Amino acid sequence: MRIDALRRLGGPNVYLSRPVVVARLELAELTERETTDHPGFAERLVELLPGLADHHCSAGRPGGLLEAMARGTYFGHVTEHVALELSCLIGREVCFGRTVWAGSPGSYDVILECPRYEPPGSPVPGGLLALAVRTVTGVLEGRPPALEPRLARLRAEYERTRLGVSTAALARAARRRGVPVRRVGDLNLLHLGHGRHRRTVWAAMTDATSAIGMEIAADKRLAQTVLAEAGIPVPDGRLVENAAEALDALRELGPPVVVKPLSGHQGEGVGIELSEPAEVLAAFRAAARVDERVLVESYIPGRDYRVLVVGGKTAAAAELTAAHVVGDGRSTVAALVERVNADPARGEGHDRPLTRLRLGAAEIAHLASQGHRRDTVPAEGEVVWLRRNANLSTGGTSRDVTDQVHPRVARMCERAAAAIGMDVCGIDLRLPDIAAPPPADPGAAGVLEVNAAPGLRMHLEPHEGRGRDVAATIIDLLFPPGAPSRIPIVSVTGTNGKTTTVRMIAHILARRGLRVGLACTEGVYLEGRGADGLIYKADASGPRSAEMVLADRSVEAAVLETARGGIVRRGLGYDRADVAVVTNITPDHLGVDGALSLDDLVHIKALVAEEIRDGGHLVLNADDPRAAGLAERPAVRRRAPVVRLFGASADGEPLARHMAAGGVAYFVDGDVLVEAAGPRERTPLVPVAQIAGAFGGRAAHVVANALAAAAAARALDTPADVVADALRSFVPHDRNPGRGCVYQVGDNQVLVDYAHNPAAVAAIGAFVRRQWDRPGVAAVTLPGDRDDALVVETAGALAETFGRVVVYEDEDLRGRRPGEMTGLIIRGLRARRPDVRHFPAGDLKGALTTALAVAGPGEPVLLLYEKLQPVTDLLQTLGAVPRP
C-alpha cells in the first residue's frame, strides 16, 4: 500500500462539519484481497493495538471492526481504523473516519477527522496515516513496526502545535456562545467573530489589553511603584545591577528577602525567603541570567494566591502550592516524582492542567537545603518540597478559593488591575488568609506582581475545588450578552451565473449603505465596488478568500462566491451562512477532483445549502430540478430554512406549488420582476426593461441572476426600492466586467462573456439570436481541465447558434498538449453541425481579428475568453467603445 496524495479540508466539507484530512490510498497488490485472505491477521493486529477491539465501525457498537475483519473487509478500511487508533494513542482524540472508493481499482480515499484547531500545515495527520500503512503492511508481513518511538515523535509534534489550555478554553467558550472562531496559523492567536464585530485574543490577552499596561506589568519595579502610588500594599524592594548591590539590599531590607529578575516570568530565576549572603549571591547570579536587572525585595510571609480580574471584576481566585512530593516510606524522591508525573493531567509547559515535576538543578539544590537527594527515601507522609515558588509552570498545584475571597481583598485586586490599566490580568499576592481582610501591618500582605496574559488553567481545572469557567467570563467581556459577533453572510454556488449574482447582491447591499466584502472569481473587493474596491486580485471563490473577507474589521456584510473547487479541496471558509443561493446545477468540471457525474456535483454544491444557520434563507432556482430539489435533503430540512424560489414565471409547477403553500417566490409577471408571498400577495420590484445588462429581458440568464440576487437581498430585509435602484444601476461594464459586456469595434459589436459549458453557451447563444436576430461569428476558447466529452458537448452547443467559429487556445493549456483543445472544439462543432465553418487562430488577438474580418458589417461577434485582462487590453488597443 502507499499514500499518493493528502489534502486537508479546514472548514465544513462534504464529509463532516469539522476539519478532515483526505488521503488517496493505493492498495497496489492488496487490491483484490481482504482480511480473510490472511489467516491470523486480525488477531495479530489487535494484539499490537488492543484498542481496535472497541472500535464500533458500521455496527454501531464496540467490536464492530472485529466483526468486519472476521467477515472480510478491504485493507483501506482497516488502515482507516488503525490511523484513528494511533491518533488516540498520542492524545489526539478524534472519532470520525470513512473510506470511499476513488474511482479506479485499488484506489480509495481515506477520510479522517482532525482536531478543530490543528494547524493546516501540521505533519501529524500525514505521519499517522503513513504509520498506519506501515503497521498494516508490517503485520501482514509478520514484521510489525516498533510503534512507541514513532508515536513519541508524533505525540511531541501534536503537543507542540495544539492550542494551549487557556486558548482552547476561550475557543470552546466562544463556540458555546455561537461566536465564530478561527485560529491564526499555529499560534495561540484566535480571531473571534466576523467583520466589524471581530475581536482577537492571544491566550488571555485581548485586542483591548493596554500596551502601556503590559509594559508596566512586565517591569516589576515599575509596577510596584504604580501600585504603591495607588495605596496598594507591595513589598519594599531595591533594583540592583551587581552582587555588591544585592548584598547592600539584603542589609537595608533585612532578611528574609526575595530575589528575582526584573522582567522574568513563570518563576524563572526566582529565589524566595533568603537570609544568608551566600544564598542571596547565588540567587542574584541565577536571576541575572534571565535579566541583568535584578529586584531584591522584602519577603512577605503567608500563603500564595492568584486572583484573576476580568473587566475590572474579580472572576476567580486560587491558592497556589509549590511543587512537592509526599513520602510513602518506601520510594525515593525520584520514584515519587515519576509517580506524580504519571498523572495524565500533567504535561510539558502549559499543554495540560498541571505541569510535570522536574529534578533539574534548581530542584536538586532545594532538595539539598532540606537534607535530601534524588535517592532519598522520605518517611511516610513527609512533604518534600521541590521548589519554593508556587508557580504552576514549575510543577505547583492550585486550589480554588473563589468563594472565600474577602470583599476587601477583591477590591484591592480590582484596584491593582485598574492602576496598571489591564482589562484581563492575574494578581499575585501574599497574605495570611484570602478569606480575611488584608492585614493593616506593613509587610504582612502585599501584591507581588500583576501578570498580563495570565494563565487560566489554575482556575479552569484546579487540583482541588471546582473549576471556574473564566474563559466564558472573558468572552462575555469581549461580546457582552446580546452583542453581535457575526455579520450577514450570503454564499452563492451553482454552475453558471455565480459571479454575476454575487456582484449584483453586493451592489444591492452597498446601495443599502452597508460596507460589503465581496469574494468572487475576479478577486476580493470591499464595499462591493468595481476596480476601485479591489484589494486582492485572484480567483477568490474559495475558502481563503472567504476568510479574508470575514477577517476584515470594516466589513458589515459578506457576499461569497463559493465554487466547487474550493469546496472539494479545502471545504468552506465559513461555518454557516445566513443566506445560501444555488443558481443552477448543470454538467461542468466532470472528471475533475473525483466528480464523475452530475449527482457528484449536486452532492458537492449541496454543502452550501446544508451549512446554513438554523432558520436561515435558502434561495433556489425553481426552473432547475436539481437546484430546487436541495430543499428536500435531510441535512437542509434539519436547518428549517426559509425557502425562497425564483423562476422565469409563476406558471411553473414548482413555483405554483411553493406559493400555494405560503412560500416566498420571485418571478417575472408580465414585464415586471415580482416578489410573491403566498398565493395572493405581490410586491413589484423593478420592470425587466430597467434591469441593467438584461437588454430588455432578451438576456434571460441575466434576468434569472437578478431574480436570485433580489431574493437574497430581500432575505436580509433590504427595502424593495433599494433592490430596484441597485438593479437599474448595475451597469455591466462597471459592475460586471467580462460578463455580457458589449463593445463597438468599427462596424461590429463584440459581446464578451465567460460562458464555458453547454448550458452557459446555450444561454449566450439564445441571447445573441434575440438581441441581433442573426447569429454572427464566435471567437472561442474553452478550459482545458474539463474532460473531452464535456469540451465536445460545449462546442456542439456553440454550433447550435454559430455557423462560423474562430478557435484559439489560451496560454494556460491546463495540462493539455498544444493543439489538443483546438482539435476537440472543432470535433464538437462538426459533430453537431457538419456545415460549420471553423477558422484556427494562434492566440486571442488573432482570434478576435479573424472574427471581425469574417463577420459582415453590423454582424455581432461573440468572444469567449479564459482571462479577462488580456481581453480588456486588446479591446483598448482596437479602440473599442463600451455599449449600454
> What shape does the CA trace take?
elongated
Strand order of the largest sheet: 25-24-23-26-22-27-28-29-30-31-32
Cα radius of gyration in angstroms: 34 Å
Which consecutive residue ranges, at least 5 long each, have pLDDT under 50?
Answer: none
CATH architecture of the domain at 489-735: 3-Layer(aba) Sandwich
Within CATH, the superfamily of the domain at 489-735 carries the name Mur-like, catalytic domain
Given the structure, what is the number of helices?
Answer: 30
Concise overview:
The longest helix has 17 residues, at 124-140. The two termini are 61 Å apart.
Could you explain how this protein is built, in words?
This protein has 884 residues and is an alpha/beta fold. Among the domains are: 2-162, no CATH class; 489-735, 3-Layer(aba) Sandwich (UDP-N-acetylmuramoyl-L-alanine:D-glutamate ligase), CATH 3.40.1190.10; 741-883, Protein-Tyrosine Phosphatase, Chain A, CATH 3.90.190.20. 35% of the residues lie in helices and 22% in strands. It contains 30 helices and 39 strands. It has an 11-stranded mixed beta sheet with strand order 25-24-23-26-22-27-28-29-30-31-32, sandwiched between helices. It is elongated, with a radius of gyration of 34 Å. Homodimer. InterPro entries: ATP-grasp, ATP-grasp_RimK-type, Cya_phycin_syn, Cyanophycin_syn_N, Folylpolyglutamate_synth_CS, Mur-like_cat_sf, Mur_ligase_C, Mur_ligase_C_dom_sf. Catalyzes the ATP-dependent polymerization of arginine and aspartate to multi-L-arginyl-poly-L-aspartic acid (cyanophycin; a water-insoluble reserve polymer). This is Cyanophycin synthetase.
